[in-house]
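Exercise 7. Given the encoded structure of a 527-residue chain, write a plausible sequence.
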């Protein structure tokens, strides 16, 4: 401000001041090149704060998801600001609580983007006017908007670190419609993040983590390595798999990934016919679902016990009256509270004495293997199961055979520089490290590299080529890592991590895409 006052004093007869025009920061000396009233001009970096927005659950039963993601994002922002920001521009984050509620998340996204309803038709992007789930139970299909939305003058550069599929279904269209970046969402869903539902507006969406479909492929290969095999012939091929999933778009995304993975690995001929689970007498969901599924209500962990009971009925059907051992793989598209309740219910039943034990001998015949999708929050689940201790009457912990298919490395064992740096920053901030916080930190670091790669005024549109043109960052996060003009997903790797009895983690497998020699990915168990 001081230098402008000096200029006005020297040229006191002038009533206006025109900033120097520019095309990139290097044109501006100690200033930076930014848009002002539609034109690029050199401005003081102190007046060019880079605003990011986040809508996430900071309250309710899933608050740990939003809190941990926010912690990781903020660690990266604080670290870069301490280095001088982006050539003097400081980074700031506006975070709003959505309670993992899709409608509130949409309201937050509208506020953060400063969305202005123009009243014009059609909408800027096709997905905006498409009727999608509002997250209610039962869900209603409602468009985000039937008229075009523009980004407000105070709109954030990017919505970053959104938490959840149900929320992304309603916030992604807000971002793409207002031409705001939708970056690093904490979900691996295909739609609306990894498809073409937004048409040409899809260019504003950037994902960092591997997809749920990729997690499902890794999970199926893990299950098969433990002896979860097809039972008999079609239509019984899916019998020894169970899906425990949230009764909404998140659960459906995980279930769709599971079906696709099994078909890819075992052939599509397993689908025809009546699913074997229909004969078990358990009908939670559609009888046309090939894999037995047990669905709980989002944000309502009290809905889990009934699903545990239904799963027990199905497993008893699989065990039958024989004496042969049985290994059942349970893929869990869940959050940590519901996941802990389901695992605890099945484990307690498996080892309890009583009529079922006499009839089915589950304690010795049955092996249950639980694999939770990355969204669960591995740390929150591990802490809960570790606190549960041992299954009553046994020396077996509730953590037995419980794994999470994480999309970032195990922070307790990885030597990647970005992971060790995260641990140092988390310790200094007095934060317990978590997989979710690490994901937020990694994701935001990559975004910051995109900011540093942008040369001129920083806008959502200028950030697209800046992110697509990033060089190999050598983060040690998988050989296939990187953005490009044809690929807006940075990582294609999954780290399978087993929960130890004390709540720590053991590296179990590493999976990554390798389209050249293994189209379904390379599954590599740790010794």
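Solution.
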């Amino acid at each position: 401000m001081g230098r402008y006052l000096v200029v006005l004093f020297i040229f006191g007869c002038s009533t206006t001041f025109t900033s120097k025009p520019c095309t990139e920061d290097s044109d501006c000396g100690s200033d930076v090149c930014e848009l002002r009233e539609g034109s690029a001009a050199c401005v003081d970096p102190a007046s060019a704060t880079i605003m990011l927005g986040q809508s996430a659950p900071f309250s309710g039963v899933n608050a740990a998801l939003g809190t941990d993601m926010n912690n990781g994002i903020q660690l990266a922002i604080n670290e870069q600001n301490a280095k001088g920001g982006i050539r003097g521009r400081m980074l700031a984050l506006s975070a709003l609580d959505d309670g993992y509620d899709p409608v509130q998340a949409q309201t937050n996204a509208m506020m953060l983007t400063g969305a202005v309803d123009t009243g014009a038709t059609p909408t800027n992007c096709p997905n905006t006017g498409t009727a999608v789930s509002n997250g209610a139970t039962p869900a209603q299909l409602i468009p985000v908007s039937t008229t075009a939305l523009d980004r407000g003058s105070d709109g954030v550069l990017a919505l970053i670190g959104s938490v959840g599929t149900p929320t992304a279904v309603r916030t992604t269209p807000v971002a793409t419609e207002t031409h705001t970046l939708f970056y690093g969402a904490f979900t691996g869903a295909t739609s609306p993040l990894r498809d073409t539902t937004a048409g040409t507006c899809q260019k504003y969406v950037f994902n960092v983590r591997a997809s749920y479909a990729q997690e499902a492929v890794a999970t199926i290969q893990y299950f098969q390595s433990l002896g979860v095999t097809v039972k008999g012939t079609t239509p019984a091929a899916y019998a020894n798999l169970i899906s425990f999933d949230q009764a909404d778009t998140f659960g459906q995304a995980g279930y769709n990934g599971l079906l696709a993975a099994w078909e890819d690995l075992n052939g599509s001929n397993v689908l025809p016919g009546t699913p074997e689970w229909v004969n078990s007498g358990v009908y939670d969901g559609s009888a046309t679902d090939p894999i037995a599924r047990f669905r709980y209500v989002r944000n309502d962990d009290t809905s889990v016990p009934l699903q545990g009971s239904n799963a027990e009925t199905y497993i008893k059907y699989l065990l039958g009256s024989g004496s042969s051992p049985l290994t059942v793989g349970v893929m869990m598209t869940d959050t940590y509270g519901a996941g802990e309740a389901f695992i605890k219910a099945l484990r307690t039943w498996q080892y309890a004495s009583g009529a079922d034990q006499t009839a089915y001998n589950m304690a010795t015949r049955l092996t249950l293997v639980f694999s939770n999708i990355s969204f669960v929050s591995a740390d929150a689940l591990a802490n809960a199961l570790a606190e549960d201790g041992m299954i009553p009457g046994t020396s077996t912990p509730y953590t037995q055979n419980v794994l999470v298919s994480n999309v970032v490395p195990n922070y307790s064992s990885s030597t990647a520089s970005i992971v060790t740096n995260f641990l140092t920053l988390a310790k200094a901030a007095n934060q317990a490290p978590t997989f979710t916080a690490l994901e937020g930190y990694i994701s935001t670091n990559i975004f910051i590299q995109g900011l540093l790669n942008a040369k001129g005024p920083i806008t959502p549109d200028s950030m697209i080529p800046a992110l697509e043109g990033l060089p190999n960052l050598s983060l040690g996060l998988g050989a296939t890592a990187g953005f490009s003009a044809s690929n807006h997903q940075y990582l294609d790797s999954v780290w399978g991590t087993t929960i130890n009895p004390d709540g720590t983690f053991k590296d179990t497998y590493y999976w990554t895409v390798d389209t050249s020699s293994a189209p379904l990915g390379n599954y590599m168990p740790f010794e």
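Remark. Confidence is low (pLDDT under 50) at residues 1-17, 231-236. Students should compare their own answers with the one above.
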